[in-house]
Amino acid sequence: MNVKEQQYVCELARCRNLTKAAQNLFISQPALSIYISNLENSLGVKLFERIGKSFILTYAGERYVETAKKMLDLNEGFEQELQEIVGEYKGCVRLGMQTRRSAYFLPPLIAAYEKEFEHITVDIRTGNYEYLCRQLKEHQLDLIICNRSDADMSAMKVYPIFEEMLLIAVPVCHPLNEKAVYVPGRRYRYLDIACLQGETLILQRPMQSIRRDVDRLLRERQVVPGRIRELESIETAMQFVAENLGVGFNREGYSYEMSYNKRVNYYGILNQNDTVTLMLAHRKNLALTKPICRMIDMLLERAGEYYQQN
Q: Which parts of the sequence belong to the HTH lysR-type domain (predicted)?
């Protein structure tokens, strides 16, 4: 099925910029401009308003894109179903995962998957949760791993992978270590987050999910830091903590793979819901072909194996 027309309009609607859309579609800018103009002429209605260099959908354009996305979904499902009918599993599975997790989580999984489906290409894209969810919604990804709080339950089918703790990272020589308490049956000792009042905190950028979780906890306990150092890299932040430059936070899963010549002490957060559920997610209308179903199974298996090991 030829859905080039729908692909072109949807990509231009997404980018709102002719040059960027043409680059993504691997055609020239003049060719795309002519194609859109000819389409509008044949339909007898404008799909886009040209405002400077921006292409903004008209009402007719919005209705066109809404229908076009349904057509693209149907086409995607049909092509995958056709491949299964003829028994030739070819194509691409597009998987999105947070940058920090992908390095240790994905390589053995992809190696095993490509032995089983040698004609399937696995396209890995990494980024923060906001980027991954947007890419999934815009049909740029098939599967993503995200926090439950970032998943759109109305549009996504989700599979819980595991729960992990949000940990407080404290320099080994810091007085806060003396305030940590032992909780029977738990892996970590625990700190009351109220103990961080007035402390120097090493936090991530506001757009990062771990920062949103930390900010929520600080607000709930009305904790006001004395100073905040912002670092995008969690690994660098932990090295700052090790050098006694402040107190930080880390995901339990991240901590397993971080090493430094000076260690830090990790504590759970006392009397708080300090766990985060990670989910495997896809669009509810995604065609679940055999290669995609197998990828889902292997991701769930890999998560279970990894967290049992640690």
A: 1-58
Q: What single letter denotes the amino acid at residue 223?
A: V
| CA–CA distance, 299 with 296 (Å, rounded to integer) | 5
Quote the CA–CA distance of 265 and 222 in Å, as a whole number: 24
Please tell me what DSSP assigns to residue 136: H
pLDDT in tens, 168-190: 999 999 999 999 999 888 889 99
Looking at residue 17, what DSSP letter applies? Answer: B
Asked if residues 283 and 156 have their Cβ atoms less than 8 Å apart, the reply is yes
**Which residues 6+ apart lie within 8 Å of 286 measured at CB?**
142, 157, 292
Closest CA to 175 of 145, 152, 198: 198
Q: 65: Cβ–Cβ under 8 A, 6 or more apart, which residues?
A: 9, 10, 13, 57
CATH of domain 1-88: 1.10.10.10
Segments in the chain forming alpha helices (H): 4-15, 18-25, 29-43, 59-86, 99-105, 107-116, 129-137, 209-220, 234-242, 252-255, 290-309
The DSSP annotation for 177-198 comes to GGG-B--TT-SS-EE-GGGGTT
Confidence of residue 242 (pLDDT cuts 50, 70, 90): very high
The class level of CATH for 163-275 reads alpha beta
Domain ranges of the chain: 1-88, 163-275
Strands 91-98 and 275-283, sheet pairing: unpaired
Structure tokens at 275: 């766990």
pTM over 0.70: no
Burial 276-309 (b: 16+ CB within 10 A, else e): bebbbbbbeebbebebbebbbeebeebbeebbee
